[in-house]
Amino acid sequence: MRVAVANWHSHVVGGAESYIRGVVTALESAGIEVAMLSERESAAGREKIELSAGAPTWCVSDIGEEAALAAMRAWRPDVVYVHLIESTTLEARLLELAPAVLFAHSYHGMCISGEKTFRFPDVRPCGLPFGWKCLLHFYPNRCGGLSPITMWQDYLKQSERHSMLPKYSAIATASEYLRRQLIANGAKPERVHKLAMPVSATFTQAGSQPVASRTDETKRIIFVGRMGLLKGTGILLDSMPAVAAALNSKINLTFVGDGPGRTAWEERARRLEAADARINIEMAGWKKPEEIRAVLAEADLLVVPSVWPETFGLVGPEAGRLGVPAAAFDVGGISEWLVDGVNGELAPGNPPTAQGLVDAIVRCIRDPAVHQRLRAGALEVSQRFDTRLHVQSLIKIFQQVAEPELRRESESLAAVS
Questions:
Q1: CA diameter of the chain
Q2: Contact criterion met (CB below 8 Å) for 326 and 319
Q3: How far is 70 from 302, CA to CA, in rounded Å?
Q4: What is the pTM of this model?
Q5: Could you tell me which of 53, 71, 97, 319 has the fewest CB atoms within 10 Å of its CB?
Q6: Which of 222, 234, 393, 232 lies closest to 315 in space, CA to CA?
Q7: Is 400 exposed, middle or buried (0-12, 13-18, 19+ CB in 10 A)?
Q8: Hey, how many other C-beta atoms are within 10 angstroms of the C-beta on 198?
Q9: What residue ranges define each of the domains in the chain, with the CATH number in brackets?
Q10: Contact, 171 vs 190, CB < 8 A?
Q11: What distance in Å separates the CA atoms of residue 417 and residue 412, rounded to the nearest whole number?
């Protein structure tokens, strides 16, 4: 079977590309021929998604859309596996090229801004299906920016994506939460599949026993992800003085990741450190998976402070493979891997508050016995997420959607002979 992967980037710039990199390797190991089409190669310094030697790759920004699609068509894929595509025109043409399977990483086609979040009068998830009524909420609930031109352009673009959802032969996603959102927005229920997410091989190399809780006074907390308002960077920073006071201990908070507002967050962190000697904050920047693993191995707690409805949050199970529990707001698909009192603690997410996050963090690491139990639970829960099982389920979906195409091809060859 031949599977052509389509994504906007060919380098690892986020969770979608991390997923693609790991799954491509597993698909090839299972005997699937893989090719890749990308829209751009603009992420200098980031790891490239590597295919096996000789596997074809096509980049639209290098050779143009027509040439890239012609080359893919000549390769004759049985399935096109679509991820994040910026151009709706390109996405529509991919749907015509072969049976297409979408992996829904986000809310494309389900929200004008793609964030599925009201920001006013408080931050909370939006559960409305996409449609013209979204325009009525855009300004009163501060769903996006303030430009009416941008709002209208984004609405038209998401309308195009919305109309494409029922045209996919299958849609895979990581959470039941996002599966329900897809169905509410027109995807055919029988075509939407929730799959247990794969954990990167970088993290599955960890041992089978969680490390013991530390006995020193310093608590080591880590954030991994894109730094920004909806990722909860600010609310996590705001929670640190109360966490230090409640635990009466030193706090080392490490941010692994980057974002457009990093300079502002760094300034805010320095002010917090100056006001409370117990708080130390490191902005470590973007790191490779093996470097993230090393940082997590030294952590007491992962915090996922996202205030928007995360579609899943794979960093949680990845940290769990190292016996690191998590504290997070109960938004989106988070509760599908984070269970209160088992592998961490959930904070109320509607609305999310700094105090709610403080309470969840403190419950995780105040009592050494509780913390050790959560470490064991984090490792146990993380075992449910396995690359081999994920790829097996994915191949079954590919076979189901490709079979009619393969049968027609076989009949055509038989007629010619």
A1: 82
A2: yes
A3: 45
A4: 0.90
A5: 53
A6: 222
A7: middle
A8: 22
A9: 2-103+386-416 (3.40.50), 202-382 (3.40.50.2000)
A10: no
A11: 9
Q: Contact at 8 Å (CB) between 93 and 69?
A: yes
Residue entry with tokens 């635990």: 247
Residue type, 378: A
Q: Give me the tens of pLDDT residue by residue for the chain, a chain 417 residues long.
A: 999 999 999 998 888 998 999 999 999 999 999 999 999 976 667 788 999 999 999 999 999 999 999 999 999 999 999 999 999 999 999 999 999 999 999 999 999 999 999 989 888 889 899 999 999 999 999 998 889 999 999 999 999 999 999 999 999 999 999 999 999 999 999 999 999 999 887 887 655 555 555 666 899 999 999 888 899 999 999 999 999 999 999 999 999 998 887 888 999 999 999 999 999 999 999 888 889 999 999 999 999 999 999 999 999 999 999 999 999 999 999 999 999 999 999 999 988 999 999 999 999 999 999 999 999 999 999 999 989 999 999 999 999 999 765 545 544 444 443
Residues 6 or more apart in contact with residue 297 via CB below 8 angstroms: 206, 211, 322
The residue among 3, 48, 47, 87 whose CA lies nearest residue 288 is 47
What does the CA dihedral 8, 12, 14, 18 come to, rounded to 10 degrees? 110
Using a 10 angstrom Cβ sphere, with 0-12 exposed, 13-18 middle and 19 or more buried, the burial of residue 413 is: exposed
Can you give the length of the chain in residues? 417
Sheet holding 79-82, edge to edge: 57-59, 33-40, 2-9, 79-82, 100-103, 170-173, 192-194
